[in-house]
Amino acid sequence: MYIRGDHAELVVGGRLDVRSAADARTVLHSAVDDGVGDLVLDLSDLDSWDATGLGVIMGAHRRAGRCGRRLVLRDVPPQMQRLLVATRLHRILAIEGGIGLDTLPRV
Questions:
Q1: CA distances (Å), 45 to each of 26, 36, 64, 69, 92, in order?
Q2: DSSP-H helix ranges across 36-77
């Protein structure tokens, strides 16, 4: 897993899972604490995430809210969009462009 960028926009790539959660949490919290305005997470390079990785995203979302910021997800891959819909988190998280429920492949 890698995260690159600054306190306004981060690109997350690889696997966001139990092994990378602690490092990801540290980077995301630092970005939230050091910036103002929206924090955009570009997920176009993200291969997969597990429940722990999704928890890291939700933790960053909550922390951003407490800091008066908003966490915005950009370019969420389709398989991860399905997970957000299945968990109804697409209703809570800000997703740039939204999720096209009609275009998601059925599983």
A1: 19, 24, 22, 24, 22
A2: 51-66
Say if pTM beats, i.e. exceeds, 0.85. yes
Distance (Å, rounded) from C-alpha 13 to C-alpha 65? 24
Burial class (CB in 10 A: 0-12, 13-18, 19+), 81: buried
Report the alpha-carbon distance of residue 71 to residue 8 in Å, rounded.
10
The whole-angstrom separation of Cα 6 and Cα 85 is 28
Which amino acid, residue 91?
A: R
Kind of pairing, strands 2-5 and 71-74? unpaired
CA–CA distances in Å: residue 44 to residues 66, 68, 73, 88, 94: 26, 26, 10, 21, 16
Structure tokens at 5: 């960028």
Q: Give per-residue pLDDT as tens, 48-64.
A: 999 999 999 999 999 99
